[in-house]
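lol forgot to send this yesterday, sorry. struct tokens for the thing we talked abt
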């Protein structure tokens, strides 16, 4: 639910600020930064109810989200700059791909309880 909520709100804000004239890559970058902050707290506390050391999970979280950012930026670049697909469609496609990647990274790497 955290992911669906944050991605839905984020996509709506993305559409709004690009409509207002913010370039699409800058809009994606700004929203990604905001989303990262909300995601850590929401996912650690609610989605995965994680009790591990905050430092350990935070480092893994930053790595997972840095890779996610690179994926999203690359998807935008390829779809918009190379294939000339409208940025809103490319952002939506990229968001879905990155959301699936991040959910799995959070579940199996970042917030996985050690046994």
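and heres what i got for the seq, position by position
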């Amino acid at each position: 639910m955290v992911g669906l909520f944050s991605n839905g709100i984020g996509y709506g804000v993305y559409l709004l600020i690009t409509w207002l004239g913010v370039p699409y890559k800058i809009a994606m970058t700004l929203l990604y930064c905001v989303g990262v902050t909300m995601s850590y707290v929401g996912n650690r506390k609610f989605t995965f109810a994680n009790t591990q050391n905050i430092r350990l999970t935070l480092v893994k979280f930053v790595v997972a989200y840095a890779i996610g950012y690179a994926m999203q930026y690359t998807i935008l670049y390829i779809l918009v700059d190379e294939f000339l697909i409208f940025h809103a469609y490319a952002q939506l496609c990229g968001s879905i791909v990155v959301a699936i990647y991040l959910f799995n990274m959070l579940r199996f790497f970042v917030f996985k309880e050690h046994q």
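The chain has a mean pLDDT of 86. anyway ping me if u want another try
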